[in-house]
Amino acid sequence: MAEAPGDIERLIELMARLPGLGPRSARRAVLVMLKKRGAVMAPLAQAMAEVAATARDCARCGNITSADLCDICRDDRRATGELCVVEDVADLWALERAGVFRGRYHVLGGVLSALDSVGPDELRIPRLAERVREERISEVILALNATVDGQTTAHYIADVLAPSGVQVTSLAQGVPIGGELDYLDDGTIGAALRARRRF
Ligand code: ZN
Fold this sequence. Notes:
This protein is of the alpha/beta class.
């Protein structure tokens, strides 16, 4: 016999799919929510339903937002002319948390991968070239993974952008970047950005 009724078991199973939550912690979290239904569970359920209904990709940069354009794309105080290219929204959030970059972003949605059959059209690479032209970008900063796929992607992007004459730079090497940005402290991210070099 199950420890909890079917629908509660189902909730535990769903929670257990989240990173950092195995079956045991999922069970514990659900139990806390059940005990604090009014203070925790109901507001959480409502917030999740609202975000699930409105969340989408920013039409310009690929960040997650609840409007057509994300807060960063709509912020007039952001330095125009500088575009930081990241693999994933997690990287964008890490850079924002560090508070060191004042330009705007372009989220690729992954990296090129022959193994997983990810080509340029599966990523936001064609859109990047359009943005460089349309927004009169002067510098594209590549903040991609130091992995083989990350670097292949960086070189591909540099080739695609070469005819536009835009300056392409890359975060300083020696620190894990890209998908690892989220694990770096803010000072390290800032140092990698300041020490960026021509790609
Ligand atoms: Zn945006």
